[in-house]
Design a protein that fits this description.
The complex is a heterodimer of chains A (311) and B (249).
Chain A lengths: L1 E5 L9 H10 L4 E8 L3 H9 L3 E8 L8 H11 L5 E5 L2 H14 L3 E5 L1 E4 L2 E6 L4 E7 L4 E5 L15 E4 L9 E8 L12 E5 L6 H15 L2 E4 L1 H5 L20 E5 L5 H4 L7 E6 L12 E4 L2 H13 L1
Helix pairs in contact in A: 3-4, 5-8
Chain B lengths: L1 E5 L2 E3 L6 E2 L6 E2 L5 E3 L1 H15 L5 E8 L3 H11 L3 E6 L6 H15 L3 E5 L10 H8 L3 E11 L3 E8 L2 E8 L2 E5 L11 H7 L4 E4 L12 E7 L8 E2 L3 H11 L4
Parallel strand pairs in B: 1-6, 1-8, 6-7, 7-13, 8-12, 9-12
Antiparallel strand pairs in B: 2-5, 3-4, 9-10, 10-11
The chains are: A alpha/beta (311), B alpha/beta (249).
The structure holds flavin-adenine dinucleotide.
């Protein structure tokens, strides 16, 4: 029984999402990784070195450059025959692609796994993490996406997988890439940062959001996150959103600043090792899940905290 | 141009659901139900496209028990022209939902299909992509902007790290995200008017789709509870705790 993991990358670098997927798949069988793109030799080489990977399939075509789901799904389906599991991380990439693959194969998908109990049994959150369901399937083939925050990463070095070039699938030409706008930041990636500082609606403006949170994040070497209310009010870009419908994070330390603690938000961060909440309302829901709560005005407390950390 | 919108009746997002004592499922008896918030955004987008003269007819579809009718009436009140209810009390997996919607699409021949990016009950996030696959159509997931031309839908998608724009050949399936729009508040006269609009019934059998189940839920459990924390008096105490007690900095 073996597993095909669809690698996530930008044609130059392998995304750490793939390392989480390899770790999660460890108990499922022999692991192969599919690298599809344009001029992806460096990515294929990186995939070869991941510990636990037995084989890397490489498919090159100009129409794989932008990771269009229509094109990649056709390739994944063409490659799927020998595998029982097709797997990716539940990132924007994996969420976009994998259901298309499942439907083309006419097999079920189980999304956003937090635990793989055995080859037929999986655990996943429902209702914004208010409950976890254990699902069993005897389906001959199954498509899976895993929640990165719930699994460690496989070691990026030490493996020596075989490389195999595979033929591209026919071009689908259903959609066309127009443009991409990536936000460049020197901060650690929100999904993998050890410390996350998140701000809510209470910050009041984009200027205040940056003015108050950036120095704190800087002393902690932290990534910055936000509640949906803060994102909706345009204090922070969309991909800062932590929660049920945003990013799922599980850092060592999560500091929630001026965030009420709605279930849709806590769904995205409640597995953090240590949670700190700063809120002026002593009854705010966030205090129910915080390890350390500090009641007071964030505009006073956060600068004090930043100073205290510098000392 | 015809738009098809899929709407699901789910537990209202304000409700904190609880797991049944026997761990068989969550308890959703007597809780408030609403249209899935992402589907509301999909309906709103269709209505806006109609108001902009790009779309001429909006068909809303819902799958589920008798009460899904309420959700369809809401869609009609928001501005959908007619509704189709695929009535069934069986539990539907996303792949089956996609097959049923595909059967409807075969009949209705819509140019664009708008769906929420996820339903806030099962949080599966699969149906739109699966429908696109079954239709051999293009997909624009996590859409935060939609522009329609004669041949294409140009969709801005929210991806990790930023935004991406793709052009989709029509017919296309669009999975909408929160930032696409803010759904309108439905006024009473529209609710009254919606009662007169057509609501047609059908069933999986009528549509020739077998409801099969591949996934068996064996247990539903509460999330791991976190230990109650402590309140600290000031920033200095917090730093001390983080350093010496929690040892995370
Ligand atoms: C379908 C759907 C999906 C959603 N998905 C998400 C999601 O993924 N992520 C998410 O975060 N939300 C999500 N939400 C929204 C969620 O329900 C809440 O509305 C949101 O999280 C609230 O954000 P907030 O806590 O920043 O704002 P508010 O609820 O307005 O809370 C602000 C908090 O700041 C405190 N405060 C105010 N001033 C100060 C001050 N000077 N100092 C200290 N504290 C102060 C207040 O006491 C309050 O607790 C979703 C909602 C829906 C319907």
């Amino acid at each position: 029984m073996s597993v095909l993991i669809i690698a996530e990358h930008d044609n130059q670098q392998l995304n750490p999402a793939t390392l989480h997927a390899v770790k999660a798949a460890a108990g499922l069988g022999e692991i192969h990784v599919l690298v599809a793109g344009s001029n992806v030799a460096a990515v294929a080489e990186a995939a070869r070195k991941i510990q636990g990977v037995a084989k890397v399939l490489v498919a090159e075509a100009e129409y794989y450059r932008h990771g269009l789901a229509e094109e990649l799904a056709a390739l994944a389906v063409k490659s799927a025959e020998p595998y029982r599991y097709l797997l990716a991380t539940a990132s924007a990439f994996g969420k976009n692609l994998m259901p298309r693959v499942a439907a083309l194969l006419d097999v079920p998908q189980i999304s956003d796994l937090t635990e793989i109990v055995d080859g037929n049994t999986f655990v996943r959150p429902i209702y914004a993490g208010n409950a976890f369901e254990t699902i069993q399937t005897s389906s001959e083939k199954v498509v899976l996406t895993i929640r990165a925050a719930a699994f460690e990463t496989a070691a990026a070095e030490g493996g020596a997988a075989a490389l195999e070039q595979v033929e591209a699938a026919a071009e689908q030409k259903l959609s066309r890439f127009v443009s991409q706008e990536l936000i460049h930041s020197d901060r650690p990636d929100l999904g993998s940062a050890k410390v996350v500082v998140s701000g809510g609606r209470a910050l009041g403006s984009a200027e205040k959001f940056n003015e108050v949170l950036t120095p704190l994040a800087d002393v902690l070497g932290a990534a910055i996150g936000a509640s949906r209310a803060a994102v909706d009010a345009e204090y922070a870009p969309n991909d800062f959103q932590v929660g049920q419908t945003g990013k799922i994070v599980a850092p060592q330390l999560y500091i929630a600043v001026g965030i009420s603690g709605a279930i849709q938000h806590t769904a995205g961060m409640q597995d953090s090792k240590v949670i700190v909440a700063i809120n002026k309302d002593p009854d705010a829901q966030i205090f129910n899940i915080a390890d350390y709560g500090l009641v007071g005005d964030l505009f006073e407390i956060v600068p004090q905290l930043t100073e205290a950390l510098k000392a | 141009m015809k738009a098809l919108v899929a709407v699901k009746r789910v537990v209202d997002y304000n409700v904190k659901v609880r797991v049944k004592a026997d761990g068989s499922d969550v308890d959703i008896e007597n809780v408030k139900m609403s249209m899935n918030p992402f589907d509301e955004i999909a309906v709103e987008e269709a209505v806006r496209l109609k108001e902009a003269g790009k779309v001429s007819e909006i068909v809303a579809v819902s799958l589920g028990g008798k009460k899904s009718e309420d959700t369809l009436r809401t869609a009609l009140a928001m501005g959908a022209d007619r509704a189709l209810h695929i009535e069934t009390d069986e539990k539907l997996e996303p792949l089956t939902v996609a097959k049923l919607l595909k059967a409807v699409a075969d009949k209705e021949q819509p140019h664009i299909l708008l769906l929420g990016k996820q339903a806030i009950d099962d949080d599966a996030g699969q149906t739109a992509q699966m429908l696109a696959a079954l239709m051999n159509a293009a997909q624009g997931m996590f859409a935060s902007k939609v522009e329609l031309t004669e041949q294409e839908a140009v969709v801005t998608r929210e991806i990790d790290g930023g935004l991406e724009t793709v052009a989709l050949t029509l017919p296309a399936v669009i999975g909408v995200d929160l930032r696409l729009n803010e759904p309108r508040f439905v006024k009473l006269p529209n609710i009254m008017a919606a009662k007169k609009k057509t609501l047609e019934k059908t069933s999986p059998a009528d549509l020739g789709v077998a409801v099969v189940s591949h996934l068996n839920v064996v247990r539903v459990a509460e999330p791991k509870a976190r230990q109650t924390g402590v309140k600290v008096a000031n920033a200095a105490e917090l730093v001390d705790k983080l350093k010496n007690e929690a040892k995370v900095i």
